[in-house]
Amino acid sequence: MLLGLGFTGTADGFWIITDVFETDLARFVDEVVPILQERGVFHKDYEGKTLREHLGVPYQYGLDARLK
């Protein structure tokens, strides 16, 4: 059901809340993420080397566009 919402454009993400962070997160990553990757709804590789590159945000030295 949750995957169906994502494919219809109803949702763009979900919060995952665990009871025991150390074990539940590892179990989610090991068991659920591979299934999501097989279905094409979770990435396997990153586009860039940094978060900025991955998100496609241009580098900016400061808030003032005149600063380069």
How would you sum up this structure, described in words?
- The chain is mainly α and 68 residues long.
- The protein has one domain.
- It is built from four helices and no strands.
- The protein is elongated and about 50 Å long.
- The model has no long low-confidence stretch (mean pLDDT 77).
Summarize the structure.
With 68 residues, this protein is mostly helical. It has four helices and no strands.
Number of helices: 4
Mean pLDDT: 77
Number of strands: 0
Task: Kindly name the structural category.
Answer: mainly alpha
Strand content: under 5%
> What fraction, in percent, of the residue positions are helical?
40-55%
Unreliable stretches (pLDDT < 50, length at least 5) are none
Instruction: List SSEs in N-to-C order.
Output: HHHH
Anisotropy-based shape: elongated
**Radius of gyration using CA atoms only:** 17 Å
Query: How many domains is the backbone divided into?
Result: 1
Euclidean distance between termini CA atoms: 48 Å
Q: Which sheet architecture does the biggest sheet show?
A: none
InterPro entries: Diverse_substr_monoxygenases (IPR051260)
Organism: Macrococcoides bohemicum
GO molecular function: monooxygenase activity
Protein name: Luciferase-like domain-containing protein
